[in-house]
């Protein structure tokens, strides 16, 4: 799913939805998500990384490439799981085999308990320092034929190189996840795209184009022709009980993630007369790790247009079930139409 706005290519990724029973992920659902994402022309599919469950993103990346015609895997890469040389070699192998671009979402952590399981006790800012070294090595190996000598605090390599290079047009695109100052510094250092949560936007719609923010916004969508029907569907999908809220509270004590804490702090502060589609209902009931927009096709399309004219050029969209793909497609088709008519593109 591609859109163009004033010479900017707007990329749209779907998300491999996180099965409630993550310990035994339903592989048929994975293939359905790949098929539907390909059918509706998404740029790619985000594959998450976790200690728990049977989902290995590098394995499923090959499934995305082999079971779709144009879809690209958007792979979560965490230094704690893999040496940068191994990551670079996997990227080279997949790109060379399928001649398709790979997108990388560099992350720095998981839950505190997962990190303890892996004996990884680095502090938040230290993990971003390690990530910066990691990306430097990966980037050099993929783009420079010279051998690499690198001595950092976390990685040291000597005369390291890959045996081949990818064509420039399919070199991977880097994203760094996070909303902290450390994440912003890392993105500024590499000129990469910031991968973060869509917040409750309080600026009014504008027809003036601000400089691109190189930002990927992650949120879910539940939409229907009528707003009331959308909110009813939202409740059907995500309603929970006090136990779910208790699980959220527990998870908040098990993370040092800035973006997750920011969402948690604003659960009861999301009323906005300018933008009424924004909701943390799924997050509050421990059913999603991101905000959602729920409303009519027109309302949600208006939110997307607002983000685009203010510089966002990448959307990562959670779609909670196979039946929701067609409704989300209606939103994006309407978004394209609004852009074409309003800006005569």
From TrEMBL:
This is LLM class flavin-dependent oxidoreductase. The lineage of its organism: Bacteria, Pseudomonadati, Bacteroidota, Chitinophagia, Chitinophagales. It comes from Chitinophaga qingshengii. Transmembrane segments: none annotated. Residues 26-185 form the Luciferase-like domain. PANTHER family: ALKANESULFONATE MONOOXYGENASE (PTHR42847), ALKANESULFONATE MONOOXYGENASE-RELATED (PTHR42847:SF4). Keywords: Flavoprotein, FMN, Monooxygenase, Oxidoreductase. The keyword Glycosyltransferase does not apply.
């Amino acid at each position: 799913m591609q859109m163009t706005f004033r010479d900017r290519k707007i990329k749209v990724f779907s998300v491999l939805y996180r099965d409630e029973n993550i310990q035994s992920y339903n592989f048929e659902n994975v293939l359905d998500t790949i098929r539907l994402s390909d059918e509706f022309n998404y740029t790619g599919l985000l594959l998450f990384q976790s200690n728990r469950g049977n989902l290995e993103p590098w394995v499923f990346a090959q499934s995305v490439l082999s079971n779709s015609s144009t879809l690209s895997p958007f792979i979560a890469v965490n230094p704690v799981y893999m040496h940068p040389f191994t990551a670079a070699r996997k990227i080279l192998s997949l790109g060379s085999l399928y001649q398709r671009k790979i997108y990388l979402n560099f992350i720095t952590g998981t839950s505190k308990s997962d990190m303890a399981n892996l004996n990884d006790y680095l502090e938040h800012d230290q993990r971003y320092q390690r990530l910066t070294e990691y990306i430097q090595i990966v980037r050099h190996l993929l783009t420079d034929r010279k051998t690499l000598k690198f001595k950092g605090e976390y990685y040291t390599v000597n005369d390291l190189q890959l045996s081949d290079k990818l064509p420039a047009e399919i070199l991977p695109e880097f994203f760094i996840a996070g909303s902290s100052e450390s994440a912003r510094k890392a993105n500024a250092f590499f000129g990469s795209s910031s991968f973060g949560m869509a917040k409750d936007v309080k600026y009014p719609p504008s027809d003036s184009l601000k400089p691109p923010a190189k930002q990927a916004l992650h949120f879910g969508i539940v939409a229907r022709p009528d707003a009331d029907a959308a909110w009813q569907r939202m409740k059907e999908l995500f309603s929970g009980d006090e136990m779910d809220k208790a699980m959220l509270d527990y998870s908040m004590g098990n993370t040092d993630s800035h973006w997750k804490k920011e969402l948690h702090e604003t659960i009861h502060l999301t009323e906005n007369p300018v933008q009424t589609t924004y909701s943390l209902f799924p997050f509050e009931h421990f059913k999603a790790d991101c905000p959602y927009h729920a409303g009519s096709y027109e309302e949600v399309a208006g939110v997307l247009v607002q983000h685009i004219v203010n510089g966002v050029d990448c959307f990562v969209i959670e779609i909670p079930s196979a039946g929701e793909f067609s409704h989300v497609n209606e939103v994006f088709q309407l978004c394209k139409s609004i852009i074409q008519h309003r800006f005569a593109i």
